[in-house]
Amino acid sequence: MAKIVNTPPSDQAPWRRILDGRLAIPVIGSPLFIVSNPKLVIAQCKSGIVGSFPALNARPASLLDEWLHEIQEELAAHDAKHPDRPAAPFAVNQIVHRSNGRLEQDLAVCEKHKVQIVITSLGARVELNDAVHAWGGITMHDVINQTFARKAIEKGADGLIAVAAGAGGHAGTISPFALIAETREWFDGPIALSGAISTGRAVRAAELMGADFAYIGSPFIATEEANAPERYKQMIVDSQASDIVYSNVFTGVDGNYLAPSIAAAGIDPSKLGELEAVTMDFANREKTRDQKAWKDIWGAGQGIGAVKAVTPAADLVGRLAREYGEAVRAERRIALRPASDGDAASAA
Q1: Chain centre to alpha carbon of residue 58
Q2: Which residues, in sequence order, are CB contacts of 288 under 8 Å at separation 6+?
Q3: CA atoms within 13 A on the CB side of 120
Q4: In terms of Cα–Cα distance, which of 155, 237, 164, 194 is closest to 31?
Q5: Which domains does the chain have, with CATH numbers?
Q6: Residue 190, preceding bond cis, omega within 30 degrees?
Q7: CA-to-CA distance for 5 and 218, rounded, in angstroms?
Q8: Which of 332, 251, 260 is nearest to 286 (CA)?
Q9: Which domain of life does the protein's organism represent (predicted)?
């Protein structure tokens, strides 16, 4: 299939205008349902990564306008004080699922504030992408396979968030190697890779696989700014990949959850297959099980073993940046023989 080529050329594309020269490392902090708030987003952006939050975290809906004003005011003050290291832009996540009755209202607030990056989830809509483009923003749509990826680009998304196996919250099952490789066969626009990325070395690996950005969520749950119970933060620190279970029971969409939180809610994690999945309803967060997903039963990705302590978000970004720099500078751990013309001949 013919490769899709973005217009204008990649080096002049809107996403480069928004992001070039604004990041300390190529990372987008993923929008965490309930957990992400202005305090966390501001800390992420000041540290040099894209911070983001779901619009639905602002409750009541009127709070979204206040949040955006607070974030923009804080980042503008930072830029005035530190012109040599401007804050990264922030993003707002819009849930496009049919049960989200706030979508049009929240999008209008984003238009008022000229939000530069809109992340869309659970549905791709042409009119939403057109609206964001009209005010000069870009959209990135999260996908778990090629079917959804192609649909998102056909409907006007600027970029993709490839949600691979091991990602926290709602996640896919495809290896990041396969997901990125298959996407790069036909798409040359911006891609962020999500899935168990918790170290700077993993950020670099995402780039080498063909992604432009790493999309990191779970480690930021264990930060001082995050709107998460202390038990949740400590559970992230204390857990590892073997403590993550994959299920659609709690929201109707497959996702990764912390087994200890499921057990604490009185449910045997090993018997989730015996339970009937609920129907997703973003209009009513209370309409799940008695133990509400994301509130009592906590999502996390498989990369949490790298999280060793609850820290300020700036310290976490600092660690990622140091590790990323070390990975970029590192030599191969094994020496390879020099390439020769014979290699190509033998391969043929």
Answers
A1: 18
A2: 250, 251, 278, 281
A3: 33
A4: 194
A5: 21-229+302-329 (3.20.20.70)
A6: no
A7: 33
A8: 251
A9: Bacteria
162 and 143 Cβ atoms separated by less than 8 Å = yes
* pLDDT tens sequence across 232-276: 999 999 999 999 999 888 877 889 999 999 999 888 888 787 666
C-alpha distances in Å from residue 245, one per residue of 99, 160, 262, 287: 26, 25, 9, 22
**At 203, which amino acid appears?**
V
pLDDT at 88 over 80: yes
DSSP state of 230: H
Q: Which two tokens stand for residue 270?
A: 């090993």
* Phi then psi dihedrals of residue 307, to 5 deg: -90, 115
Q: What is the rounded CA–CA span in Å between residue 49 and residue 220?
A: 12
Hey, what are 305's tokens? Answer: 């073993």
* Distance, CA of 154 to CA of 18 (rounded, Å): 22
Residue 26 CA neighbour count, 13 Å, CB half:
24
The residue ranking higher by pLDDT, 226 or 98, is 226
- Measured distance CA(204)–CA(26) in Å, rounded: 9
Name residues whose C-beta falls within 8 Å of residue 36's C-beta, 6 or more positions apart in sequence: 29, 51, 52, 53, 54, 57, 220, 226, 227
Whole-angstrom distance, CA of residue 228 vs CA of residue 330: 36
Q: Is the peptide bond prior to 60 cis by the omega test (within 30 degrees of 0)?
A: yes
Name which of 123, 159, 121 is nearest 139 in CA terms: 159
What are the CA-CA distances from residue 49 to residues 11, 41, 196, 225, 249 (Å)? 20, 9, 17, 15, 33
Inter-residue contact 129 to 96 (CB < 8 Å)? no
pLDDT tens digits for range 5-53: 454 556 678 999 999 999 999 999 999 999 999 999 999 999 999 999 9
> Are residues 214 and 202 in contact, defined by beta-carbon separation less than 8 angstroms?
yes
Structure-block tokens of residue 240: 């590892």
Residue listed under structure tokens 């990705």: 301
If one counts every other C-beta atom within 10 angstroms of the C-beta of residue 150, the result is 18
